[in-house]
């Protein structure tokens, strides 16, 4: 019922051919709707119910996305590219709004469905990972002149690793679901690394790392790769575009894509950080950024990878302790299993620290 009402806000009353859940995102409810659009032609849209619990100010999220996509679209047009495939395109409601509300207060939005492209959940082929690096690097480059102060901070302290650790301590002390005693090993792992958690945010505070327009959720499955050419097309999932650190964007891609196992792999012996993939991504990201990063930012890329992985592990652990209220889960202990893969990756990066730094140095010019 809810969805019908939303679709009619977009002028889609009948002629619906299919409506199915889509993707493997942990946050929003995503659907692909195919419908008859005019005489004999079909159209696909990506309809999403935004997660209102995560995004407290959906209007502010949509304002960021409108501004950033308009900016990228303009650049695509200037250089003769295809703006329908080089950025997300928001579909406005019949009332001209970038989102609509249902009767229960939920927020929905629609995008043109990007056809003939795939967002991969795993690196099936190193070239695809390289392409994703170019796309995220390009994103950084394209937005390097965008006035960062004009963006809303849609989730406060989203990538503040030190604050995430403080939060973990608080949740452990409160232990709302009585789960803390079963995960002492993971809690200790986090606390032992307390000092390091501050490194990047403090560098930013001292002005040693610039605050830029960043994506903040640079997983491989947030990039579209063209099915025909194999080339990277564009970045999707722009909900968390806001002021941030480039090294965290780099790091999030590494934690997800350079891992030899899935984010929720149960067999930890399969989890490690692949140095070949790390090198491929480093090369592609710096190529895409095309000289826009400072020397210090490049130097701190390995730290971005380690801390972002650490932070993500902390977030999964917090959610496990709080009773799985933030990330979608598909089985019992899912968040704990995710936390364990992240911490295993951190430990592996610590062992490979010198190699990671050597690789980054090789591409720092
Ligand atoms: P979540 O925030 O829940 O991760 P996303 O915005 O990433 O939601 O969307 C979920 C998935 O839908 C993406 O991983 C991608 O596979 C796909 N997707 C998102 N936007 C589009 C689009 N405009 N066209 C085609 N596929 C898309
Ligand atoms: C969430 O929405 P999705 O699945 O692309 C999360 C990211 C995490 C990621 C872990 C808004 O991303 O921060 O790194 O899960 N997004 C939000 O897989 O919290
Ligand atoms: Mg996503």
- CATH superfamily heading of the largest domain: Aminoglycoside phosphotransferase (APH), C-terminal lobe
SS field, number of helical segments: 13
Number of domains: 2
Q: Major sheet: size, sense and barrel closure?
A: 6 strands, antiparallel
The hetero compounds bound to this protein are: adenosine-5'-diphosphate, 2-acetamido-2-deoxy-1-O-phosphono-alpha-D-glucopyranose, magnesium ion
Q: Report strand %.
A: 5-15%
Q: What distance lies between the first and last C-alpha atoms, to the nearest angstrom?
A: 57 Å
Nearest-integer average pLDDT: 97
Instruction: Label the structural class.
Output: alpha+beta
In CATH, the topology of the largest domain is named: Aminoglycoside 3'-phosphotransferase, Chain: A, domain 2
CATH class of the largest domain: Alpha Beta
CATH-defined architecture of the largest domain: Alpha-Beta Complex
Write the H/E string, N to C.
Answer: HEEEHEEEEHHHHHEEEEHHHHHH
Radius of gyration: 20 Å
- Enumerate the spans where pLDDT stays under 50 for 5 or more consecutive residues: none
Report the count of strand segments.
11
How would you sum up the global shape?
A: globular
Q: Level of helix content?
A: 40-55%
GO molecular function: transferase activity
Organism: Anaerobium acetethylicum
Pfam family, one: APH
Protein name: Phosphotransferase enzyme family protein
How is this structure best described in words?
It is a single chain. With about 375 residues, the chain is of the alpha+beta class. It has 2 domains: about 110 residues, Phosphorylase Kinase, domain 1 (2-Layer Sandwich); about 240 residues, Aminoglycoside phosphotransferase (APH), C-terminal lobe (Aminoglycoside 3'-phosphotransferase, Chain: A, domain 2). The strands form 3 sheets. Strands 1, 2, 3, 4, 5 and 6 form a 6-stranded antiparallel sheet that branches. Strands 7-9-10 form a 3-stranded antiparallel sheet. A two-stranded antiparallel ribbon has the order 8-11. Helix 4 packs parallel to helix 11. The protein starts with a helix and ends with a helix. The relative contact order is 0.13. Magnesium ion binds next to loops. Keywords: Transferase. It comes from Anaerobium acetethylicum. This is Phosphotransferase enzyme family protein. GO terms for molecular function: transferase activity.
């Amino acid at each position: 019922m809810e969805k019908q009402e939303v679709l009619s806000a977009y002028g889609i009353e009948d002629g619906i051919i299919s409506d199915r859940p889509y993707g493997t995102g942990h946050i929003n409810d995503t659907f692909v709707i195919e419908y008859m659009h005019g005489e004999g032609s079909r159209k696909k849209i990506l309809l999403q119910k935004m997660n209102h619990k995560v995004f407290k100010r959906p209007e502010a999220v949509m304002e960021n996305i409108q501004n950033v996509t308009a900016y990228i679209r303009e650049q695509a047009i200037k250089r003769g590219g295809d703006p329908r495939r080089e950025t997300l395109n928001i579909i406005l409601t019949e009332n001209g709004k970038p989102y609509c509300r249902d009767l229960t207060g939920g927020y929905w939005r629609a995008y043109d469905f990007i056809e003939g492209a795939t967002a991969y959940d795993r690196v099936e082929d190193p070239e695809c990972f390289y392409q994703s690096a170019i796309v995220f690097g390009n994103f950084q480059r394209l937005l390097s002149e965008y006035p960062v102060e004009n963006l809303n901070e849609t989730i406060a302290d989203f990538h503040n690793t030190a604050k995430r650790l403080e939060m973990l301590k608080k949740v452990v002390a409160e232990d709302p679901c009585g789960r803390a005693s079963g995960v002492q090993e993971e809690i200790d792992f986090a606390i032992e690394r307390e000092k390091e958690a501050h490194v990047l945010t403090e560098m930013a505070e001292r002005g040693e790392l610039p605050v830029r327009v960043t994506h903040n959720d640079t997983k491989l499955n947030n990039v579209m790769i063209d099915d025909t050419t194999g080339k990277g097309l564009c970045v999707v999932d722009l909900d968390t575009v806001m002021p941030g650190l480039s090294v965290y964007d780099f790091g999030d891609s590494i934690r997800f894509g350079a891992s030899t196992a899935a984010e929720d792999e149960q067999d930890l012996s399969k989890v490690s950080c692949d140095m070949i993939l790390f090198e491929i991504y480093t090369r592609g990201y710096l190529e895409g950024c095309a000289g826009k990063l400072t020397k210090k930012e490049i130097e701190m890329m390995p730290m971005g990878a380690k801390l972002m992985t650490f932070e993500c592990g902390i977030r999964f652990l917090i959610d496990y302790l709080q009773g799985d209220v933030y990330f979608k889960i598909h089985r019992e202990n899912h968040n704990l299993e995710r936390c364990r893969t992240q911490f295993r990756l951190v430990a592996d990066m610590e062992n490979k620290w010198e190699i990671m730094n050597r690789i980054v140095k090789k591409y720092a010019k």
